[in-house]
Amino acid sequence: MNDRPLMNTPQTKRANELDDPGAHLVAGVLLVPVLVCLATIAVAWLTGGPSVAIIAGLAAISCLAGVAAGHVFSIIPRGDMFFSLRLMLSSTVRVALPLVTLLVCRLTRPELLERGMVYFVILFYLVGLMSELITRIKRLASLQNAKSVVGQSTKGSNHVNGTNGR
Q: Rounded to two decimals, what is the model's pTM?
């Protein structure tokens, strides 16, 4: 049985690209949140001035860092055995970074919270969460399609080689 052609199919190449931790980080996970953050900061600058834009920027940085770190932690421990660990680490990091930022602001500069930083954090957090969920669903669907195509082609290659699955 010759496994070499199966490794070069577009589906297996796509599955290998999807397993790469950095493959979707910029293009898939962070593109939409960065655009939303930049648009929100621009609107905050126009409506509230530079001080509100700085508050929105701090919220954006904390949430984007949480999304990026959460995405990395959802991929790095590989294997089915580490599924619950990946889920726990990614969720914890994604939530912890914005919350720690709010806590530090509460302890050091409470006027930032009074000027609406909490609302910016909630907005950016939800946008980042939705972006990562959509990317993860697409990734799982692509992996499932690649596995089914590879599985079908291995069955066909056994029959073509004359082994009939033996």
A: 0.70
Pick from 56, 6, 65: which is nearest to 36 by CA? Answer: 56
Positive or negative, the Cα torsion across 2, 3, 4, 5? Answer: positive
Q: What is the pLDDT of residues 58-109, one digit of tens each?
A: 999 999 999 888 888 877 767 667 777 778 888 888 899 999 999 999 999 9
Angle of helix 83-108 relative to helix 50-75, nearest 10 degrees? 160
| 8 A C-beta contact, residue 37 and residue 64 | yes
From the centroid of its chain, how far is CA 47? 31
Q: Please tell me the distance from the alpha carbon of residue 12 to that of residue 84, in angstroms, as a whole number.
A: 25
Contact 1, 161 (CB under 8 A): yes
What amino acid is encoded at 26 in this protein? V
